[in-house]
């Protein structure tokens, strides 16, 4: 993920990185000039000019790199969100069901924000890095003997930091994993608002034992992780002052040019504390970026689809859809239990109304999902007009269907190019379903979606009819409708769709209307009986 972003913006990143290093180097040069002036008896005007030019150069380089990095951050955020959204839209539907919406939401919000933080950490890392390296070089030039003494200190500091760092990153990783569970609980806060209000005991349990525990766990893991990093950077700071004390009071002795060397060391070491701290702080930030990038990568990896996206809907008219010995299986790894649908053989033809009936949990919705191509069959074959459906043409196959599942989603518009005739047809259908006084279709968008559940379902029916696909699937559409609308749906709408030559699949428990069907398919425990 990060390497992709780095490759994508490598030109601008390189320019901004060079500017950061220039800014850091100019700062070190300024400090060295201060030391020269402090040690000299007089100051030459040329030195003043050099100092002023370096200060201006440091400012310009810093400004340029910071602006460029901010710009890159926004561009990277936008591209990452588009990339993840694109992957989500083409991901296998079953995979999305399995990972759940909380993982997708946190990838799009929290993790994306963390990854783009990289573009803010980099200038700090580079500028501070350049200052620290520059300072060390200056110290080496000033007194190679004293500088050699710094090496064990650097090694000691690096070792201590590395140990803390390894421990900290584990805490950050598990904190991020817990946070995804927390996002799921946040969703329950709004989606389960009714249930939580109606039952005080459940509300308290959810609050104390589920939500607070998860919030606390994220807080604890992140606090421990970040505290370890802070402890490590404080350790680095301490070593600087310990080293300075050692130089000033123990090692210096009677080295040549004592005053100039010691002033230089003191000045540079004190100056280095800030950038070193920034450097040490930006390392945990870089780790947060790494952890977030790993989460996004893990999520997106499962979204890879081998299907080809259709560019145009198939021209040929529907003649038949055949399911040949198709099977689907849900497996729960926790309980190691499975539910099997199939083997099932069915044929669907135009102008035919098929009712899919059976008890709760008998597999009707699952079969419908296999039929419309949301679940590729795990065994058996699907044939559209005698053509075998596989990954190469599955997306084209799905374009044959309009479906209203029980957990349907209503977009606020038809998501189609504006067509006045579409508005007219839609409003006629809305009038027919007695919704026109509540909602209208204007320029392809609905005037409102604040409707009752039954009304929203009627709106979903209108959307499905307007799509004008050869096959329509209704999953217990009539379950929430009053008798009048049930009658319109079963006796009028289905009859009209049949007249238009549509193949209609209706999942239903309304045995009063079973006579409407041309064929009834009864499922029991995943099998047609
Ligand atoms: N997304 C899923 N993940 C795992 N198992 C599932 C999933 N959806 C359904 N199942 C399992 O598959 C079985 C059949 O479910 P399905 O929704 O197909 O039944 P149904 O006949 O449509 O039931 P109902 O009449 O209650 O809507 C259920 O027992 C359930 O355990």
TrEMBL record:
Q: Which UniProt keywords apply?
A: ATP-binding, Membrane, Nucleotide-binding, Transmembrane, Transmembrane helix
Cellular location(s): Cell membrane
The record's Pfam families line, in alphabetical order, gives: ABC_tran
Which coarse location class describes where this protein primarily resides? membrane
Organism domain of life: Bacteria
> What PANTHER family does this protein's entry cite?
ATP-BINDING CASSETTE SUB-FAMILY B, ATP-BINDING CASSETTE SUB-FAMILY B MEMBER 6
Mind telling me what this protein is named? Cyclic peptide export ABC transporter
Q: Which organism is it from?
A: Steroidobacter flavus
